[in-house]
Structure formats: C-alpha cells, structure tokens
Design brief:
The complex is a heterotetramer of chains A (about 400), B (about 280), C (about 325) and D (about 250). Chain B has about 280 residues and is mostly helical. In chain B, about 75% of the residues lie in helices and about 5% in strands. In chain B, strands 1-2 form a two-stranded antiparallel sheet. The longest helix of chain C is centred in the first third of the chain and has 27 residues. In chain C, about 75% of the residues lie in helices and about 0% in strands. The chains are: A alpha/beta (about 400), B mainly alpha (about 280), C mainly alpha (about 325), D alpha/beta (about 250).
Chain lengths: ~400, ~280, ~325, ~250
C-alpha cells in the first residue's frame, strides 16, 4: 500500500525539527570556560588521537580543570579524517556550544577547511598538529596557532643537515607518501640537502595505504645513494620499514629519516627490530631524558595506563598553551586580541623542551638527533644530539644568506 | 635500468601477494557459485582474521596457534552468520545487504577491540630470515606464502573437481534438484561453503598480517582487490580466481615497480580492458 | 499500489499536508542554529542521492554499490571547473556536472548492465572503485588524497549571498523540490511503471514487447544524473572535495539509507537519509559507536523490517485503516 | 496470406537436436495446433517463433518478414503475442497494473517519462474494456497473485490480447484447468476474430481437434505430419508414435 508522500515528508521534517531543537536546548549560558576539541577519533588515526585528547585532559587536570577561577569544560568532537565533517563540527562547537577556544584539528586538510571560518569569527584555534607550512604562509590566520612543527623545514631541515654536515653523505634516495604533506616534506628536504651541495638521486612517491612496499623498496637505486630518506607514517611506515629490512636494503645503505614520521611510536612498536639503528631528526621523543618529560611520561602512564606518543605530547602542549594564555587574560576571551597577544608572547618549558613563539604561530623549539634502540625489550628513539632554538623556518647557516633572512 | 635481481624480487613479491588475493577470491567464487551471493564482509573477514591472529600470536608467541585462531574465529563467525542470519533471509539481495551491515559492525568492533594503530605479526622463527638474490634479499616468509597458496589452490581444485561435494559447486547455484539427487542437503552445503570461505579469509588475514599489517582500512581495500580479481578471472571457477589473482598481483607489483605514479590505477585499467573485451573474464 | 480514488476530500487532505510539509521546510532554518541548517541542507542533498540509488534499487531491482562514482563525478566536475578553468558560473558548472555524470552513466551502464544480480553488484562496485582510483592517483589534476579546496558558494546574481548557510539551504531546498518532483513524476509515468514490471518479472516484460535493457539503461543514466546533482550541491556546500566523495563507503552508506527508509516507498530514501545523516552528524557527538549503530540498524532492517521505516508505518496504518470483509 | 513461416529451422543444445530441419507455414486467420509427445520440441519451436531463443540454423518469417535475428520484444511490435505454459505474470502487482503494462507496451507513449501513467487518455479505458470483457474488472485492485489459478490463466490470455496481436501463440493454455474453466477458456479463444491467427500447443486432443484448422505433429524434433483433423487421425505414422502411445 502506498503512503502519501507529503505525509511522510511532513513527518520527516517534523521529527528532524524536534530532534534538532531538542539537541539545541542542552545549551546554557554559564560561567565555565568552554573549550572545543576537534580530534580524528574515527579512522586510521583514532588511537593516536585518543592519546592527544588524553594529553589535553592531563594538562587541564594539572590545573584542577580551573582557569582564572572558572571551571574548564572540554567538548570533544570527532572530526574523522574528513575536512567537510571538520568544518561542520567547528560550526557546531562555535554556534551551538559557544566555545571560547578550539583545540585541534589534527590534519592539515582539516585545518585548511576551517581556516576561513575561524578567521572570520575570530575563534582562537590551537591545533595539536596541522604541520603544513601553508599555515605560516598563504593560509596564516591571526587566530590560528599550533603546538607542532613546520613540515618541510622543522625538523626536516635537520634530516638533511645532519646527514650532510655531520655524516658526510652526498647522495640521497627519497621515499615519501604521495599527498600534500609528503610533497612538502620532500621539497623541504631537497631544498636543504641540494642547497648544501648534496644530490637527490631518486624521488619515489607511494600512495597512502599502499598494501605492498616490495616494488617501492626494490626500486631504490643503491648504487647511487649514500642514504635513504623517507617520510611515511601509519601502516605505510610499518610496511616500508619491514620491507627495507626483509629485502636487504637496510643492510646495504644508511637510513636517515625525518622525524614525527616513519619511525615514530606507535608505528615504531609495530615495526619491531626492523627499525633498530634507524636515525632521524625530530622535535620530540618520548624517550627524552629530562625531568619535564619524565614527569609527563609518568603522569600519562599513571592516568591512562598507556605509553605517550608525539600525539599525546602535542595535545598536552596545545592545552598548556591555551591554559597559559587564558590565565594571562584572566579567562576573558570576549576580546580575542588579548589572548592572541598572550599566545604570541608565550615562552614555557614543555615536555619536549623550551618553547617560544618568536617566529609566527608555530613553536621555536629544540630539534633532536635520534636513533632507534631497544631498551628493556622496548623500542625507543634515543636522543643522541640536541640542536637548540630551532625556528619553524630554520635553514642551515650556509643557506641563510641566499634566503635573504 | 633495473637489474635482473630487482625484477626477480618484484616478481616473487607479486606472486606472494597474488596468493593472498587468491585465498579471498577462491572463497568469493565458491560462495557466488553455490549460494549465488557476494559476501561484502569478505574483506572484513580478512581484516578480523588478521587482528585475531595478531592478538593470539603476540600473546602466545606461537605462529601456528595464531593461524589456527584466525581461521577458527572467522570460521565460527561465518558459520554463525550463515546458520542464524543468512539462512533466514528470503532472497540473495537481502543476504548481500545483510553482509553490508556486517561490514560496519565488524569494523567498529575491531576498532573498539584493537584501536587504529598499525599492528604487525612476526613470522615464525624458521621463516623469519631472508634468502639472498644477488645483492638483494627476499624474505623466506613470502616464499612460504607462495608455497602455501599453491597448496591451497591444489587442494581446492581437487575438492571441486573430484569430490561429490564439489560436483554441486560445479553444477552452480540453482541446481538444487541435482543436489537432492545426490542425496545432499543443500542447506548443509550452503553452511559448509560459507564457513569454508570464512576459514580461507581468516587464513589469508593471518598469513597476510606479517606482510600487510592489520589495520582498519583493509576491509574495503581487500574486498575491492578481490572483486577486481573476480571480474578479471571470470567469477566462476577456482582456476579463474587463480589466474585473476596472478594477473592482478603481478600487474600491481611489477606495474608499480616501473610506473609507481600509476600504481593502483593499472589494476583498474586491466579490469576495464577485460570488461570491454572479455566481459566474461579471462577464464571461460 | 493503485489508487484512482480522487475525491475532493482526499485532494484537500493532500494539499494540506503538502502545505504543512513545505511550511516546515521553509520556516525551519529560522528556528535552528546555522550548524543545524547546514546539517539539514546535507540531509536534503543526501536525500536526492538516496532517491537516485533507489530508482535503481527499489524500482528497477538493480542493487548498485557504485553510486558514489556519479556523486563524485558531479562534484569533481564542478571543483575542477572552478579551480582549474576558473569558471564561476553556477549554471554552467551544474550543466557540465550533470553532463559528465550522464556520460559516465552511459559508459558504466553499457558495462554493468550486461549482467544482473550479484554480477551487477560486483561490477558497479568495481567500476566505482576505478573512478575513485583515478581521482586518488591523478594528484596533479584532482589533488589526489588532499582533495581540492577553494570552491566558493555559487553566485546566482541574487541580491543576497549564498555564502550564508540559510540562503544556501534555500538553494538546496529548491533543488530538492525539483528533484523530488521530477523523480516522483518519473516513477508514476509509463516508464516508471515499466521499471517496476522489470523488477518483478523481466522476461515477461520482454514478451510483452518491452526492450527491457533500454529501460534499465535509461534508468541507470537518470540515476547517474541525480547522483551527480547531489554531488554538485555537496561540493558547493563544503567548498571542498576529496576522494571520499566517490568512495565505496559512501556508495554503501547511501544504499543503507535507502534500505533503512524503505526501498519500496518513494519517501523511504528521504527518511533513511535523514536517519543516517542524523546518526552521522549528531549522534556522533554523543557516542563514538555510531558506525556500530548504523551497522546494527542495517541488520535489524534486513532481518525484521525489510520494508524499512516507511514500510513499517505504512503497514501499521494499513492494519488500522483497512478492514477486509 | 501467410502469418508465420519457419524454414528449415534447427536448434541444438549441447550437440543434441531439439529441433531438426522444421518447416511450416501458418496462414493468416488460421488456427494451428502443434502437437507431439513430451520432448518433441514444441516449446522450443514456440520460443523460436517468439524470439526467446535463436535457431542454430534456418529462418523464421513473420508476415513475410525475416525475423530470425529480431529479439522477442521487437516481434511484439510486429503483431505477435504469446502466453506461457507456466504462469508468467506479476503476482505482486494488481490485476489492473498487469493489464496496463501489457496495453501500454505497444503504445507510442510507453517511454513517457514525466507524465503520470494515469493521465494518458484511453489507456485505462482500454484496460477496463479488456478486463470487463473477460470478467475480471471487479478484481482489478487485487494483487494478481490473489486470483484463482483459472483466473490467472485467463489473465495470461488477456495480457497477450492487450497488444491487439495479429498472431497469438498459446502454450498449453488449458493445462491445469478444470473442465469448466477449460471450456470457458476455449470460448475465449473461439471468440477471437478471424483477423487473428492463433498457434496453439496443446496436450488435450479434444481441445486440439475442436479448435484447430490444421495440425502439425512433431516427433523427436522433426515434423512427421501436417494436415486437417481427418488427415491426422488417418495418419498411420502419427498413430504409431503418438496417438497410439497415448490411447
């Protein structure tokens, strides 16, 4: 039997309205400071991103969830891996929950998708990742900050500088994931390495989600490369590192990667012994042996019974930035310019080391030379060298003249 | 110019990958042939098999146990799905849509249970090394996968060609009269075929885990590749599944080696060519 | 299925309901925050998409798991025209998007409609994955995994800007009404009645003198065009496109929506789309298990309520309303 | 004038001949019965006429036109219609919908996309005419599957007549009907005008002899006799292979 179409449409509209209006009524105007969190809690980054949220929660718990005498309320939204969904969610946070400030999102594509929106609404957003250089350049916003690093320059500049200047390598075969960040990283590496006088002999791009890295590692031309450089993450990183080992590449050529990528935990833990001895340059290591980091690692272990990763630390630092800035303006975000000024003047000790924002809205920080080691049966990135005060635009001294500052 | 040894590496790698695809495509062929359904959760079976295998393998350190657990778990799941759900559905379209719902359920349960971080299973100690090929090396484990795949292919071929049970598979879906004539309960055959396909997918999931890792994107990814294999191989026969797997596995790896920028695309280009010029597949 | 009763009472009743429904849709945005207006526009877009897949699934009996190919084709056509060719004219982009979707439908229809049943399901799925692979791998053209950002809301030369969510909602609503009107006419037309006949007994329809292949082919192309329309609207809403627009999971999601709503009822896909989208955008704020909820809902519908939500209520109404003598 | 002609038609399945070198001509307005024991190839021949299968060799002519390569649906538009031995209707649709589909099939507006089916003048009237004529108008709103078997057989014929065929192929139309129902069905066929040619496959010899002007006898895929009732009754070969067996 047939149901009249208009009836169904009317019912649908009515039902939807009730649901929507019902949802709306949960909001209330009150004293707590509302902080929205955009995290990729479904999809391939879900577990890492849960870690990031844990880091944020830890930071707020350290101040008893109170800033300037007001309770802090975290409203966590799952933005998946979809830029469109992220835009929808930030609108929800701002227009319905009336958040004072947003932490996140993770992916640069998501950050770019919401950039115009937060800029227009002067909504202060502190991303715990979004490492694309675009956020310092064409897509910069006065209201957008990040606690991470700058793809292609920091720490990637050191993944070219250390092999060239310290190790004396002159030729490199490069492998990166075939998406914007991969190209940014590869271009950044090339700029520094070739600027210094080195030669990139191969540029190999693999699509994200490549099931089989056999053909990619077999392509590496070992005759013409002093070392292999790479930027991959997630399952791709695991398969790639495994393949390097199993196909005998690792045994024949040096490996030096960029940080926060190929041999970063938790991927590192899945890679197992195949990753042993691989060096890279990064701005953090969970194995960093400083009082600040040891305390942070211990706190995460106690609270969540998990090992912190770079995501956890990024989340923690983003939340610290928010707390410090809000404290400075006494919790008042009605004029967004005040917290922006406070954020720009931040200078504090993070688990990764000292952080300041003297060159744009991305931290100036240490970069570490790391090597994968096994300690107590567990793989870690042991720090074997420190480069202090590295800005997001860092270039080796030899190249600074050419850049013209 | 690539050296011969590089090509050998890629070729062997492609064959090993083909064998994983074959284990899946063979199950799909059996289900399509006997039950006339396509199990959209077949990629999910593969994924879940990998997760279970890793969970058991990491805890016990016993690879054989991991393989058995993966096969067993997916076998039981498939059995239950067929026995308690598929059987009660009136048509095969409903059955397919049911398996689509299962894709979502298996995905989310796996996410809750194992999270989204990549996980890897170590091959057993006696297969852990690599053998030299010129200046390069090739993992022994992948060679073992090739051997295992070949054995399973042989076993399935024997099963389909030489057993009474296999006669039903050859006769095709709608020939219930024949099954009855042979004194075989067709319902039992359905359960058996669906379970067998599940066991094969679980097996593929576990033995694939040391190569491909186990993660939450595998369900659709593997299903897509297995379906492409079906289209290329002709959907009807175990031999077709084998040929399709080899074509897609080798095109995927060797093609990627020469033209990495066209990886994945090549696989679909082959499918499109087959569809345009041999719409019934390469075999039959 | 036939009701030739057309008393004035019934007419008045229908008109009243139409007016009520239309009124709710028109007034709605003024009671909702901008965010929910956006969600509502998305539901309307997704409804068009679900209606398109249901023309195949519900009316013709062809389960297509590749409908996202057309959604993506429409969306990418617009995105590429805007970002690469600098064409800003909305009508031109829309026309091109519909043409490209139709063309793709013509080609895929030729390949997929050689088969039926399971084979058709597999072929549509594989063909759509081919589109996805092209979009995903052809980075220099489509932006690959990163997608293409920077598609502004359309400028129709109206005195108000569509950048505002409420105005854009009205644009979507207009297209939704047009799409519903056209599709409703199509399924009531001789052509549409023939599709139902094909679904029920194709060989008989051939014996009656119908070239059933051609009907299925035309239906496939029409579905492609409406899929492309939905994709076009979505890309204007998001201002961004990525390979997710033509992914297998989107194809699956829209089939799920049609199933949940009820494939045998015209309004089914609309209700289903609303349910699925509310779960995806609103319920996901409260629970991380929303994928599981969708899956369980699908299984429950397939097992116990094959007529879907609309069908369930229709049966209730039938039980109450009609007393058989 | 001839309506239907087969010339040296053969059909092989897996190397076995279902039909071998069959030739026959049916004149316009004729009532022709095709008989033969089970497996003689009657239904295969029917399917060749209707266009549902293609002959392995030989040609089929419809109203003098070579239609060997023409698919079934196009033959309908030349004026051919058929019924099926096993009920082949759309039980889930209403009686009226079934007839509407049949009537509409040969109308130019059958491809109409945007006008409601109910708005086409004449379509409903024609369907009403058919259903009233054959006594099923009252049941028009019921799902066809709710009708009795005899009524459904009648629907088979109504659906075939809906396209106003010039030649009607009836495949065992009375099979499964009670005597009374069969009789009323025969009345229906007898009521057809002589401008309609009818070819009928039938087991019931009473029906055959009562209806047919001429009879063709098939045996093992070959025509063994053709002629009037008396000729067939007198044919020794036919008695041997067919009538003898049955009686």
């Amino acid at each position: 039997m047939k149901v009249s179409l208009p009836l169904m449409l009317a019912l649908a509209a009515l039902a939807a309205t009730l649901v929507l209006v019902g949802c709306q009524s949960t909001q209330e105007a009150g004293p707590p400071i509302r902080i929205g969190v955009l995290a990729s809690l479904t999809g391939s980054l879900a577990t890492n991103e849960e870690g990031a949220v844990h880091g944020m929660e830890l930071a707020f718990s350290e101040v008893n969830n109170e800033v300037a005498g007001r309770t802090v309320q975290l409203i966590v939204e799952d933005a998946g891996l979809d830029p469109g969904l992220c835009l929808t969610k930030v609108q929800k946070l701002y227009e319905m929950d009336h958040v004072d400030l947003v932490l996140g999102p993770c992916l640069s594509s998501q950050g770019l998708a919401i950039r115009d929106y937060i800029d227009r609404n002067k909504l202060i957003t502190i991303s715990h990742f979004c490492s694309s250089p675009a956020f310092l350049e064409e897509s910069a916003s006065r209201y957008f900050f990040r606690s991470s690093h700058n793809s292609g320059r920091q720490p990637t500049g050191h993944s070219a500088y250390i092999p060239y200047a310290v190790k004396g390598y002159r030729t490199a075969a490069c492998v990166a994931l075939d998406y914007k960040a991969g190209h940014d990283e590869m271009d950044g590496f090339k700029q520094v390495f070739e600027g210094l006088g080195g030669n990139v002999t191969q540029e190999i791009y693999a699509p994200i989600g490549t099931a089989d890295y056999g053909p990619y590692v077999a392509r590496i031309d070992l005759e013409n490369a002093d070392f292999v450089w790479s930027f991959l993450w997630g399952d791709d990183a695991v398969r790639f590192v495994k393949a390097l080992d199993q196909y005998g590449i690792k045994q024949r050529v040096a490996l030096f990667f960029t940080g926060a990528a190929t041999v970063e935990p938790p991927d590192l833990w899945a890679e197992g012994d195949s990753a042993l001895g691989i060096e890279d340059a990064s701005h953090y290591s969970p194995a960093l042996n400083t009082p600040a980091n040891n305390a942070f690692v211990q706190a995460i272990r106690d609270r969540y019974h998990e090992e912190p990763t770079i995501y956890t630390e990024h989340g923690y630092v983003a939340a610290r930035m928010a707390i410090l800035a809000l404290q400075k303006v006494n919790g008042n975000t009605s004029d967004p310019e005040a917290p922006v000024a406070a954020l720009e003047g931040l200078n504090f000790e993070a688990p990764r080391g000292p952080i300041k924002f003297d060159q744009g809205h991305s931290p100036t920080q240490n970069v570490y030379h790391r090597v994968v080691e096994k300690v107590d049966g567990k793989l870690q990135n042991t720090v074997i060298g420190v480069y202090n005060d590295i800005g997001p635009y860092w270039l080796p001294p030899e190249l600074r003249q050419a850049e013209g500052g | 110019m690539p050296q011969a040894e590089q090509l050998a590496l890629v070729f062997l790698d492609g064959v090993a990958f083909s064998m994983l695809l074959f284990l899946l495509a063979a199950g799909l062929v059996l289900m399509l042939g006997v039950m006339n359904i396509v199990n959209l959760a077949h990629g999910s079976f593969y994924m879940l098999g990998g997760f279970v295998g890793i969970a058991v393998g990491v805890r016990t350190g016993d690879f054989a146990l991991a393989v058995l657990a993966g096969m067993g778990a997916i076998g039981v799941l498939a059995f239950a799905m067929e026995r308690f759900f598929l059987r009660r559905l009136p048509g095969n379209t409903e059955q397919v849509l049911f398996t689509l719902g299962c894709v979502y359920i298996i995905w989310d349960l796996s996410r809750i249970a194992w999270g989204s971080n990549p996980q890897l299973l170590s091959p057993p100690a006696f297969l852990a090394g690599s053998v030299p090929i010129g200046d390069y090396r090739f993992p022994v484990y992948q060679l073992a996968v090739i051997v295992l795949g070949a054995l399973v292919a042989l076993g399935l071929w024997f099963f389909v060609q030489k057993t009474r049970f296999g006669a039903i598979v050859r006769a095709g879906a709608d020939d219930r009269e024949m099954a009855a004539g042979l004194g075989i309960d067709i319902k039992l055959v359905f359960t058996a075929v669906f379970t067998l396909a599940g066991v094969l997918a679980g097996l593929a999931g576990v033995i694939g885990a040391p190569i491909l890792t186990a993660n939450l994107t595998l369900d659709w990814q593997i299903l897509t590749l297995a379906l492409v294999v079906m289209v290329v191989g002709g959907m009807r026969t175990i031999q077709g599944a084998l040929v399709g797997s080899l074509v897609i596995g080798l095109v995927g790896t060797v093609g990627t080696f020469f033209l990495p920028q066209l990886s994945m695309f090549l696989v679909f280009a082959i499918m499109a060519l087959v569809l345009a010029f041999r719409p019934r597949g390469l075999v039959r | 299925m036939v009701s030739k009763l057309s008393g004035t009472q019934r007419l008045a009743y229908t008109l009243l309901l139409v007016a009520l429904g239309a009124g709710v849709f028109v007034i709605l945005p003024h009671f909702l925050s901008s965010y929910y207006v956006l969600v509502f526009a998305e539901i309307l877009i997704f409804s068009i998409f679900a209606l398109s897949v249901n023309l195949l699934m519900g009316y013709t009996g062809l389960v297509s798991l590749g409908q996202a190919a057309f959604f993506g084709a429409g969306g990418y056509t617009v995105a590429l025209l805007v970002t690469h060719a600098g064409i800003e004219n909305f009508w031109l982009c829309l026309l091109a998007a519909l043409a490209v979707s139709a063309l793709l439908g013509l080609i895929f229809g030729l390949l997929a409609l050689r088969t039926t049943g399971m084979y058709f399901i597999m072929l549509t799925l594989a063909l759509a994955q081919m589109v996805w692979a092209i979009v995903w791998r052809w980075r220099s053209f489509t932006g690959g995994d990163d997608g293409l950002p920077g598609i502004p809301r359309p400028d129709l030369g109206l005195p108000w800007s569509l950048a505002d969510n409420v105005s854009f909602y009205y644009l979507v609503l207009a297209f939704f009404v047009i799409a519903v009107f056209l599709l409703y006419r199509i399924i009531r037309s001789p052509f549409g009645r023939t599709l139902v006949g094909i679904r029920e007994n194709e060989s008989r329809l051939q014996a009656l003198g119908y070239n059933t292949w051609r009907y299925k082919y035309v239906c496939f192309v029409i579905a492609a065009v409406f899929g492309g329309l939905a994709g076009t609207l979505k890309v204007y809403q998001d201002g961004f496109i990525s390979p997710a627009y033509c992914s297998m999971s989107l194809s699956a999601l829209v089939v799920l929506a049609a199933m949940i709503g009820g494939t045998r009822y015209f309004a089914g896909p609309i209700i289903g789309a609303a349910v699925v989208w509310v779960i995806r955008s609103i319920v996901s704020s409260y629970t991380e298990y929303w994928t599981l909820i969708l899956g369980v809902l699908m299984v429950v519908v397939v097992m116990f309520a094959r007529q879907g939500i609309v069908g369930y209520f229709a049966q209730l109404r039938e039980k109450r309303g009609i007393v058989k003598g | 004038m001839e309506s239907l002609r087969a010339e040296g038609v053969s059909k092989r399945f897996d190397g076995l001949y279902a039909l071998q070198d069959v030739s026959l001509t049916v004149a316009t307005g004729e009532r022709r019965a095709i008989i033969g024991p089970n497996g003689a190839g009657k239904t295969t021949l029917f399917n060749l006429f209707a266009g549902e299968t293609k002959p392995s060799a030989g040609r089929v002519y419809l109203f003098g036109r070579d239609v060997t390569a023409l698919p079934a649906h196009q033959r309908v538009h030349l004026g051919l219609a058929r019924t099926f031995q096993v009920l082949n209707l759309i039980p889930s649709l209403s009686v009226l919908d079934n007839v509407l589909l049949a009537v509409q099939a040969v109308k130019p507006f059958r491809n109409g996309l945007l006008r409601s089916q109910s708005s086409y003048a004449g379509l409903f009237e024609e369907a009403e005419g058919l259903l009233s004529q054959w006594g099923l108008w009252k049941r028009r709103g019921d799902p066809l599957g709710d009708l009795s078997y005899g009524q459904q057989r009648r629907m088979e014929l109504i659906m075939a007549l809906a396209s106003k065929p010039r030649i009607l192929l009836l495949d065992e139309p009375t099979s499964g009907l009670s005597e009374g129902a069969a009789a009323s069905f025969l009345d229906m066929v007898r009521g057809l005008g002589r401008d309609t040619t009818a070819v009928i496959v039938e087991h019931d010899m009473d029906v055959v002899f009562e209806l047919a002007d001429r009879i063709t006898v098939l045996h093992q895929g070959k025509v063994i006799a053709e002629g009037t009732e008396t000729e067939i009754r007198g044919n020794t070969r036919v008695r041997e292979v067919y009538l003898g067996e049955e009686e």
